[in-house]
Specification:
Layout lengths: L1 H14 L18 H12 L13 H27 L7 E2 L19 H22 L15 H24 L2 E2 L1 H8 L8 H12 L1 H17 L4 H6 L2 H4 L4 H7 L9 H22 L1
Antiparallel strand pairs: 1-2
Length: 284
């Protein structure tokens, strides 16, 4: 979303440009007044003055449509993930509970991701609208027929869809429910198998990565076949414990100890957001 804010700032400079050119684009009817009239009109409208009229040069409109498309696509990605994590069998995240919203007419217990549904609906409609604007770029001579008129519905629709999707995601994000117990439960679904890489890498420091890979792979298959945990198999194998004591194995098989750069990435994103907010505040 921070990247989209940057794109929007750049887009304002590129897109907010006067189109004033008459039928053929030469402003011949204004004679020597063409340039001052153009500049005055641009100033009145708060627009930049283009190098030349651009009636059939529709890249500015297409870039605007592309921006809306990317923005709505990102919002759709967020909505898709949240809706998947709201499924009963996943139960990790949930939209904020609101009276009269998200219930089911047939299943009293159900909590539907209605905000996500609205965003996903927008994301489904968006590609076709963006394509319509792209198709309108192929225009005839100085004043085309049908191409730029197709933008009249597509661009406003994209703007409305973007606004609605943003509003829904903002509401969801502000009150997002996180089921910590559900997250922990799902991390343990494989009984430690998802952390086999951590054990393999630690074991590889002593016996080499390839041998460690084979050993952990064999232990994983044994855990699945015996319907037991990876820890149970590894901790009973002398070929493992002679290099990794039981306490070290417990540490390696703790999901909280294998998050990599996740915290650093979150901090970096928040720092970027904070810096941008401070710059915006100073400008005001």
């Amino acid at each position: 979303m921070l990247h989209h804010r940057e794109r929007l700032d750049a887009l304002r400079t590129c897109v907010l440009v006067l189109q004033f050119g008459g039928a053929a684009g030469t402003l011949a009817s204004l004679c020597d007044a063409a340039v001052p009239v153009t500049r005055t009109l641009a100033e009145e409208l708060g627009l930049n003055v283009p190098t030349l009229p651009w009636h059939t040069k529709r890249d500015r409109m297409t870039e605007t449509a592309s921006f809306f498309g990317m923005l709505i696509g990102t919002l759709g990605k967020i909505a898709r993930d949240i809706s998947l994590q709201m499924q009963t069998e996943i139960d990790e995240l949930a939209e904020p509970a609101t009276a009269g919203k998200g219930g089911s007419s047939t299943m009293p217990h159900k909590r539907n991701p209605v905000g996500c549904a609205a965003v996903l609906t927008a994301a489904t409609r968006t590609p076709g609208l963006v394509a319509t604007v792209f198709a309108g770029m192929v225009q005839e001579l100085e004043r085309a027929l049908g191409g730029w008129q197709a933008e009249w519905d597509a661009l406003p629709d994209l703007a409305r869809l973007a606004g609605g999707a943003l509003a829904n995601i903002a509401l969801i994000a502000q009150g997002l429910n996180v089921n910590v117990a559900g997250l922990a439960k799902n991390l343990d679904v494989t009984h430690g198998l998802i952390l086999g890489e951590a054990v393999m890498l630690a074991l590889g420091d002593s016996i080499g990565r390839l041998d460690a890979h084979h050993l952990v792979e064999r232990a994983s298959k044994a855990a699945i076949a015996g319907k037991t945990t990876l820890f149970a198999v590894l901790s009973s194998d002398p070929a493992v414990t002679q290099h990794l004591p039981v306490e070290r194995l417990k540490e390696l098989l703790d999901p909280a100890q294998y998050v990599g750069q996740a915290h650093a990435y979150v901090d970096a994103a928040l720092a970027l957001h904070t810096a941008r907010a401070e710059r915006a505040h100073h400008k005001e």
